[in-house]
Structure formats: C-alpha cells, structure tokens
Amino acid sequence: MSKKILLINPWIYDFTAFDLWLKPLGLLYLASHLLRRGYEVELLDCLDRLDPDFPSIPSRGPRYLREAGCGSYYKEILPRPSFFQDIPRYWGRFGLPFSKVKSRMEKASPPDFVFITAGMTYWYPGAIVAKELTQKIWPEAKTVLGGIYPALCSEHAESWGFDHVVKVTDPLSVMKKLGDILETDFEVESYEDYFSLRPAFFLYSALSYVVLLTSLGCPFRCTYCASGKLYPSFWCRPPEDVVEEILFSREEYGIKDIAFYDDALLFQGEKHFLPLLKKLEELSLDLRFHLPNAIHPLYVTPQIAQLMKKVGFKTLRMSLETSSPLWQEKTGGKVDNYAFEKAVRCFLDAGFTPQEIEVYLLFGLPDISEEEMINSIKYVKSLGLQPRLALYSPIPHTPDYYKIEGLPEDEPLFHNKIAFLYQSGNAPLYQRLHRDLGS
Ligand code: B12
Ligand code: SF4
What we know:
Elements: E1 4-9, E2 12-14, E3 18-19, H1 25-36, E4 40-45, H2 63-67, E5 71-72, E6 75-78, E7 91-94, H3 98-107, E8 113-118, H4 124-137, E9 142-147, H5 148-152, H6 154-158, E10 164-165, H7 171-182, H8 191-195, E11 210-212, E12 215-216, H9 227-230, E13 235-236, H10 239-253, E14 257-260, H11 273-283, E15 288-290, H12 302-311, E16 313-321, H13 325-330, H14 337-349, E17 357-363, H15 370-382, E18 386-391, H16 417-423, H17 427-437
Parallel strand pairs: 1-4, 1-8, 8-9, 9-10, 11-14, 14-15, 15-16, 16-17, 17-18
Antiparallel strand pairs: 2-7, 3-5, 6-7, 12-13
Helix pairs in contact: 10-11, 11-12, 12-14
The chain binds cobalamin and iron/sulfur cluster.
Iron/sulfur cluster is lined by residues 218, 220-222, 225, 227, 263-264, 332, 334.
C-alpha cells in the first residue's frame, strides 16, 4: 500500500498577518513530486481563506488587493509571549480556528509522515504547535520540518523533537534529503527536473489566485537579506515553460490573478523576463499580474515597462529602500537614484499612473538616521510617487543582523518586524511617518 503524507502549512503566530498572495509554494512542489512517486498526499493549509471551515470575517486592506484575491485572516487573540509584554499590540494565531484543525485531524486516517513548513523564522510557533498536535493524535506518524525557518535557524529548529529537520532550501538538496528520509529516488537531478512538475494547486478546494516562481536566487548580496544564503546562485526557468504554467493555471483553476515570488525577476531579462512578456503579449490573456516582492529598478527598460503595461501588471512595486547614496552603497548597491528615476520614467511613459507605482523604503535599518529615513520619503514624494514603508526585520546569516546589539540569539521571535520596531525604539517615528503618509 502506498504511504500517506500529510502536508501542513501551519497558522501564523504574530501581531499582524495578511494574505498578500501567500501560498506555501515549496510544499506544493513537494506534493507534486510525492504524487509522482506514488505517495498518497493530503494538504492541510491553515492559511487557506477559502477553506469551508474558515470563519467569515470582514476583509480589510485596500480594495484593489481584495479584488486581486488577497484578504484578512481570522485571528484568535492569545496572550503575548512574556518578552513582548511591553508591545502595545494584540498577539494571536492567524488562520483556521484551532478547534477545526484539531477535529479535522482527529477524523482523518493516520498519515505515515507529516511534512510541516515554516515560511519565516519567526513563524516557527505554528510549526511547533502543528507538530505537537500530530504527535498527540498520531503518535506513529513521522514528522518532517522544512522551509526557511530550519534553513536559517537550524539549531533552534532541531531542538523540538521533529523526526527529521530539512535544513536546506535549494530544491535539488531538498529532494535529495527527502529521498534519504523516504528511502526513494525522486529522480530530480536538475532544476529542470524539479520545475517539470506544476505546483499542486489542485489540492485546494477553491483558489482566488496562484503564485509563480520563475527563477531561483539573486545576483546581489544586500546586507539585510538572506537570499544569498538560501540560494547562492541564480538560475532561471525557460520562458516557454513559465508561459505553459500560466496557461495551465488559467485554464485549470480559472484564476485571473498571478503573483510572482522571484527574488530577481528582471535579472537576465533578455533571456528570461522579456521573452516571457513578449509571449504573454501575443497570447493576450486578460490576466492580472502582481509583484508583492518588488522588482529591481536597475533592470527596467522602456520595452519591459511597455510590455508589462500591455500584459496586465497591476501591482507594481519597486525596491528603493533608501535614497541615500551612501546607504545604497553600504547595503549592497542594488540601486541608485539615477537608475530608479530612469525606471520611474519608463513606467510613466508606458502609461502607469504615479499612484500605481509603489516604492518600497526599508524603515529602521540598523544605524540609519531618522533624517535619512525622512529624506528618503521626501525624495519619493518629490517624484510624485507613493512611498511604502517596509519594516526592517533582523534576519540571521545577514551582515546587518550581527550589527544589532542585545538581540537574543536563541529566540527567532525577535526577528519579527513589529517586535523589532518596538525594541529598536523606532515605533513613535514610524507611527508619525506612517500617519503623515496616510498609508
Ligand atoms: C515570496 C516571499 C514573500 C511573499 C510571501 C511570503 C511567504 N513566505 O510565502 C510576501 C511578499 C508576502 C513576503 C513578505 C515578507 N517577507 Co518574504 N520572501 C519571499 C521569498 C522571496 C520567497 C519565498 C518562497 O515562497 N519561495 C519559493 C518556495 C518554493 O520556497 P520555499 O517555500 O522556501 O520552499 C523550498 C524549501 O524551503 C523547501 N521546503 C519548504 N517547506 C518545506 C517543508 C518540508 C517538510 C520540506 C522537507 C521542505 C520544505 O522546499 C522548497 C524547495 O526549494 C523569500 C526569499 C526566498 N528566496 O526564499 C522572502 C523571505 C522569506 N521574506 C522575508 C521577509 C523579511 C519578508 C517580510 C518581513 C518583508 C517586510 N519587511 O515586510 C514580509 C513579511 C510578511 C509578514 N506577514 O510578516 C525573509 C525571511 C525573514 C525571516 N525572518 O524568515 C526572506 C527570506 C527574504 C529575505 N529578505 O531574506 N515574502
Ligand atoms: S536585491 Fe533583493 S533579493 Fe537580492 S539580495 Fe538584495 S534584497 Fe535580497
């Protein structure tokens, strides 16, 4: 008889959480590879807002995001962790009600393995609770933890008593480790093999969007980002393959909205993103594309901007982070103001309105001054654009992480962006700037 594997995307324990095209893409790829090897696979996504057990709640957030399939999660308020007592925000568990998940698990037939993902280091409590529930209900089932948390906080992740902890994120290394755990050969020898299967979105009963990964890694090494640790080299899928996946998702799931998960979507654009856009233009598909992760201004050209407008890019976000040339250089040199302004011109000339171009500024980098943050906001506004403040959060294995004094090394909850905002003393400034921006 084939082995049964339950894949769990656990709840988020946090101050805030929003479904901004949030899907456990790694788990969905794993599901497809497991199914191909003949395993019986089930998905329990505690963050599936379209699950019939999800309580109906008024969805907050901007209207354009709700129309593009995003929305609020149900939240169960819980006591704050003791070290967050001074943070004046409610702590809670976002996702399906705990009781529903528990009773669903109790009624299900026991799996042989339970695979649990953790998409952020500071989202680990959800994975631990899912593991504890598993061990209580099915003591015989083997638990396997994977995702960004065990990759960036390996020792911490190993301390919970999972049967296996997969501490890598590169798809080939992950499939190799899983092969060892399950004593099987997934025959994934190359990235082409890995991406030859479509992520298993069919495991959902309903979908309001899908997410898409067209490349791995990023050529830059920004001092606040872990991309280089997770994916040391850059690789991109052939554009034809990506187009096929887009067509498949559109036909199979009837979705209109697609969000890109790439770190560096525009890098090597000539052989990757540009041919993809050209093909999408030819096909004229009436889809809406979104860039929650933001793109590199450096690689925007007039042609790319025009094609993006034509094929339906709706959420257009660019990373500037800071307008200070000194800080741009110090943090990795991924952008300068000249390249940024050039990219803005390309998008405006292509017909995007200034309101449609969202600019990410990283708020609260270690050592950056208040004046520099204010100047960045003024600079973006002087171009007629809307700045979006992304809160800096400390990420292990990055140079900036090690600059922060007094950050407890053995507690990943301190990587939480809201927690860091309060602990760094920047909360009043942020609230003032946020209020002034009206965003
Ligand atoms: C897409 C993305 C987002 C999306 C969706 C988030 C998500 N986690 O799905 C959005 C835009 C919402 C987002 C937001 C943010 N993000 Co983000 N995001 C990413 C990104 C670019 C890709 C993640 C991804 O899905 N990759 C593709 C899939 C296939 O990978 P995967 O799920 O990791 O799966 C692989 C392995 O992990 C493994 N695997 C996964 N699960 C399992 C389970 C088992 C059992 C096994 C065996 C294996 C396994 O299999 C796959 C094989 O390759 C990563 C960077 C990166 N390259 O990883 C940053 C990243 C995760 N984000 C990060 C950050 C900092 C943020 C923000 C805080 C930024 C900000 N300041 O606002 C916000 C937080 C939002 C919030 N609510 O708190 C950090 C993580 C920080 C941390 N402490 O963990 C990362 C690493 C980027 C960075 N700067 O270094 N993000
Ligand atoms: S350019 Fe973006 S993805 Fe690449 S290292 Fe910098 S922040 Fe990370």
